[in-house]
């Protein structure tokens, strides 16, 4: 290489190191694990809990453009639906953070399910096994593809 060609090659190399590698980022975000159901789930996800509703749409569109394919937005889906039902034919993953039955007080009102003593009002007549079987029924009905307890 001539000294000019060598300098250009060095400059290109420096520019590549400074520029974000969109293709590489997308591939890294596309890494996934296989769930026991056989479906694959990206290992990097984006949660939008507690975000202002007006910001969520733009954030998700931007995230999709850089490679995100895993979004945790169930709580937000309830707030957008006039009938308090998720407007989807099925869920990819139904994940329960604490699989206990509490006194039903409405969607998004777990805090109001607290007893007078400030402790979560748990319905002890419904076992964890019953809860799990009900989740399995959702899979059988085609409403959910994968289930889990976190």
Description:
- Residues 1-25 are annotated as: Disordered.
- Pfam families: Aldo_ket_red.
- GO terms for molecular function: oxidoreductase activity, acting on the CH-OH group of donors, NAD or NADP as acceptor.
- This protein has 150 residues and is an alpha/beta fold.
- The chain has two domains: 1-87, no CATH class; 89-150, no CATH class.
- It is 38% helix and 15% strand.
- The strands form three sheets. The protein has a two-stranded antiparallel ribbon. The protein has a two-stranded parallel ribbon with strand order 3-4. It has a two-stranded parallel sheet with strand order 5-6.
- The N and C termini lie far apart (58 Å).
- The model is unreliable at 1-9 (pLDDT under 50).
């Amino acid at each position: 290489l001539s000294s000019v060609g060598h300098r250009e090659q060095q400059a290109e190399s420096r520019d590549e190191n400074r520029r974000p590698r969109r293709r590489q980022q997308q591939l890294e975000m596309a890494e996934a694990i296989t769930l026991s159901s056989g479906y694959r789930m990206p290992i990097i996800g984006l949660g939008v809990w507690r975000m202002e509703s007006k910001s969520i749409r733009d954030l998700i569109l931007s995230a999709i453009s850089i490679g995100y394919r895993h979004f945790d937005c169930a709580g937000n889906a309830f707030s957008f639906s006039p009938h308090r039902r998720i407007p989807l034919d099925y869920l990819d993953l139904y994940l329960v953070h604490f699989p206990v039955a509490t006194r039903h007080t409405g969607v998004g009102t777990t805090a109001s399910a607290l007893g007078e003593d400030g402790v979560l009002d748990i319905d002890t007549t419904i076992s964890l096994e019953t809860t799990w079987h009900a989740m399995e029924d959702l899979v059988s009905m085609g409403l959910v593809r994968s289930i889990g307890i976190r």
